[in-house]
Amino acid sequence: MKVLVTGGTGYIGSHTVVELLESGHEVVIVDNFSNSDSSVLDKISMITDKEFTFYEGDVCDKKFLEDVFSKEKINAVIHFAGYKAVGESVEKPLMYYQNNLGSTLALLEVMEANNVYNFVFSSSATVYGKPSTLPIKEDFPLSATNPYGYTKLMIEQILKDLSKSNDKWNIVLLRYFNPIGAHESGLIGEQPNGIPNNIMPYIMRVATGQYDKVHVFGNDYDTKDGTGVRDYIHVVDLANGHIKAIEYLIENGGLSIFNLGTGNGYSVLELIENVKKVNNVEVPYVIEDRRPGDIAACYADPSLANEKLGWKAERGIEEMCKDAYNFASKK
Ligand code: NAD
Ligand code: UFG
What we know:
- By secondary structure, this protein is of the alpha/beta class.
- Helix content is 42%, strand content 18%.
- The protein is globular and about 55 Å long.
- Nicotinamide-adenine-dinucleotide binds at residues 7, 9-13, 30-36, 58-60, 80-82, 84, 99, 103, 122, 124, 176, 179.
């Protein structure tokens, strides 16, 4: 199958392109490098030794997309392109609504015009807001507390409406928990610009000596050691979920929603301890106040994806910490 991957040079997109190529699919990547760079393309070639096509451009630009669809016989689309920093979305809401909604609307319109109806969307566990019980199932109530989260909720709604309007659409919404780690080659991984917001890239800056210490946001939550608990998932496991999702939507049609998580929660201190132990490095930390908007704990019930997609996260926390450091220490 020929799969168009938007945002395919980004963190999750690049790992998914590798897994698509390794499983025999043809890949067309589009990206505008707003949060990535062209070196990733060479890295994907080095890892896979396979050919793929790349177009540089903005997914909000319908003319650009029409050109891509006229040149390539696309069968399915995986849509990663978008902005993802929660704090930045609070400061620049228009930029977030414009890019995340604008790219999705343009893409769906051009797909429809070209009779391409197979679509996988990158949603997020952020759509569950503050869950009242754990683990989180797909039918839990949805809410958002920031513009980034609202873009995911709105796009989910758009896709639900679209699916109802025309049964030709085959759509899977994947709600990711917390992706960390990197490809085992150490060639691709997560490289945020500026100071990382997320915990693992921050821990990596400390482990590689670029920053002095990790700031742990709160140790008075009602969790095992008082620090925040999350469902960390290896990015390669997450990438593989997309291959299963493409196969599933072609066979089953309609709109389906799946959590992609491991079902296990680890605290911030457990994550730091694992990084230290597995890589034999120092990771000093200091306890700070809670970060506004954070929830105590969040982890998935991944049983629906296990059952329906035949997908299961296979890599444990130690492998995530090893691969993250392997990538961070090579840069
Ligand atoms: P990323 O920033 O590494 O990748 C996104 C890619 O999209 C980048 O390469 C960027 O240059 C590109 N891009 C952005 N806007 C574009 C546009 N208008 N046109 C063309 N290219 C554009 O992010 P990621 O971590 O790989 O996340 C991918 C998707 O998964 C995003 O939609 C994100 O919201 C979602 N998601 C990520 C996480 C996470 O923790 N990383 C969690 C849940 C959901
Ligand atoms: N944390 C720290 N110090 C830091 C950064 C984070 O202690 O420097 C803590 C947080 O308080 C939280 C945990 O580490 O307890 C994880 O925080 P992240 O920022 O790494 O991840 P979040 O769960 O807050 O959010 C991320 C994305 C969201 C997405 C969500 C679920 O930023 O967009 O995962 O996929 F919705």
